[in-house]
């Protein structure tokens, strides 16, 4: 538990930077699983700063984003492709071919094959070294809403009403929020070597308590993380205020 989201984000960005440097020395790729939303933005700011001011290179980095709304055009203001470019990728020396984000423009009949190929690409690179997560009020990780199984893989899902309500202001009304998304599964997330879930503010305190101290169950997918051997919650004092 950090005093605030700034020091917590600095800590997380440093762990990511250390992994990248270690992999560089080994002549290997660092494989990152990334999230969008308001939670990780300061981590991305720090990574951009480390690149611009300290010369941290991202040439040996491959990334897999957790999710994208479906359908979604990449140039839309709501697109996670656009979000990632604006907050991170446009400011780094990362090779564009190493960036992977679920494709919101696919035809319905092509989604299954795309999702299987997404899983295969992660496996081909040796799996995810560090998976960064936020958490939704439903306890979702990625867009794995209540009811997602611990072994679920990358797939098309239906968004929970609470998630749509939380996104409503960004979309200028709940009716404009896409009903569906393509997300990495709980199983995909669980197979990462290291997981860092971040949460800031009092609004996350109830779900953080549930995820950390509650019984492991499908109705709160984040509780599955209790079974991961190397998962930390890096949170601020407000998000941790209900923990016993
Ligand atoms: C985003 C994602 C979601 C968010 C979660 C929290 O790629 O997978 O699980 O991490 O909805 O969103 P924020 O950070 O906006 O509170």
From TrEMBL:
Residues 9-226 form the Glucosamine/galactosamine-6-phosphate isomerase domain. It comes from the Bacteria. This is Glucosamine-6-phosphate deaminase. The lineage of its organism: Bacteria, Pseudomonadati, Bacteroidota, Flavobacteriia, Flavobacteriales.
């Amino acid at each position: 538990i950090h005093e605030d989201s700034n020091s917590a984000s600095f800590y997380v960005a440093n762990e990511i930077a250390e992994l990248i440097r270690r992999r560089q020395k080994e002549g290997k790729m660092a494989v990152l699983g990334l999230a969008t939303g308001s939670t990780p933005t300061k981590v991305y700011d720090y990574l951009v700063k480390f690149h611009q001011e300290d010369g941290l290179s991202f040439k040996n980095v491959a990334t897999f984003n957790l999710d994208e709304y479906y359908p979604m055009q990449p140039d839309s203001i709501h697109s996670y492709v656009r979000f990632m470019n604006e907050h991170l990728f446009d400011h780094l020396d990362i090779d564009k071919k190493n960036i992977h984000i679920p494709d919101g423009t696919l035809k319905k009949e092509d989604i299954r094959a795309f999702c299987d190929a997404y899983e295969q690409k992660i496996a081909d690179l040796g799996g995810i070294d560090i998976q960064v997560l936020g958490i939704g009020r439903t306890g979702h990780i990625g867009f794995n809403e209540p009811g997602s199984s611990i072994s679920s893989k990358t797939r098309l899902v239906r968004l929970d009403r609470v998630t749509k309500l939380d996104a409503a202001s960004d979309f200028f009304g709940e009716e404009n929020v896409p009903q569906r998304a393509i997300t990495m599964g709980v199983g995909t997330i669980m197979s990462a070597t290291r997981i860092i879930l971040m949460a800031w503010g009092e609004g996350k305190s109830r779900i953080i308590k549930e995820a950390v101290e509650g019984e492991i169950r499908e109705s709160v997918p984040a509780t599955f993380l209790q079974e991961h051997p190397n998962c930390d919650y890096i949170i601020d004092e407000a998000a941790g205020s209900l923990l016993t």
